[in-house]
Amino acid sequence: MFDRAGIPQPVKESSMISLAVYNMKGGVGKTTTTVNLAYLCAREGRRTLIWDLDSQGAATFYLNVEPDAEMKAKQLLKAHKDMDALIRPTGYPRLDILPAGFQIRHLDALLEDEKKGRKRLVKIFETFSQRFDVVFLDCPPSISFLSETIFRSVDCLIMPVIPTVLAHKAYEQVRAYIRETTDHPLRILPFFSMFDWRKKIHREAFDQGTKPGGGYLRTCIPTRSVIERMGVHRAPLPVSSPKSDCVASYVDLWSEIKTNLKNPPRFDS
After folding, report:
1. Rounded-to-integer distance, Cα 224 and Cα 185, Å
2. pLDDT for the residue 11
3. Which positions ≥6 away from 177 have C-beta within 8 Å?
4. pLDDT at 9
């Protein structure tokens, strides 16, 4: 639930909002989106968690957190009763992370073998809801049993899309796949990342994507070296480069996402 200012408000355990940042393609800005939006959410006063589901552990690295080298994917799935032992603080108020490393690379295979994979994920979400208002999932770039389980479990799918024909085609494929395979009321919010207004093809993509029925959010994240340098600073952009115009773009993006989540999630046909 959100208040009149568009800020998530906890009412009861089931009011936790789950947002998955996903694209089947890699290198589109998933992790930078996850880290920056989660930081902004926590800065507003919401108890916020990032669940790093990518075995590359990029979100974990960006937030300067070391993954648990002993934790295996099987242990993670069985730890829903004791998640507090796995969650780490990030050093920023109200922002925690469930870190990842290469050792969770078998998570997808374990979920596929588990007949009750979605129920297992729901149980983990129930554990999160006792402690957090909003959870962000930084998803690996693939179409897999893990992503299918996420599609059926979260409230909203946030999709960074590069403004090219092939990237938009990939978005359409994911959207069509979800429509065909699940009746879960999932809201999909695509937006353009790595955007350059100087490029005609980017402007055309924006016009096409944001026209009535296009489905894209109007906020674009520009292509900037300062975003790439997040891996050097290992900090959210509002911390490492607060004067960058990209910070304002992420603030606008988060505001637009909240506006779209004021109503109950629905999958727009």
Report:
1. 34
2. 37
3. 143
4. 46
Structure token digits, residue 206: 């924006």
- Can you list the pairs that 204-209 forms with residues at least 24 positions away whose Cβ atoms lie under 8 Å? 205/163, 205/164, 205/168, 206/163, 209/161, 209/163, 209/168
CB-neighbour burial class of residue 255 (10 A; exposed 0-12, middle 13-18, buried 19+): middle
Q: Are 191 and 156 contacting, i.e. CB atoms less than 8 angstroms apart?
A: no
* Rg of the chain in Å (alpha carbons): 17
- State residue 36's pLDDT score: 98
| Tokens, residue 262 | 């004021």
30: Cα within 13 Å, side-chain hemisphere:
28
pLDDT of the residue at 116: 62
Q: H-helix or E-strand containing 113?
A: helix 107-113
Could you say which residues of the chain have pLDDT below 70?
1-14, 69-82, 101-118, 262-269
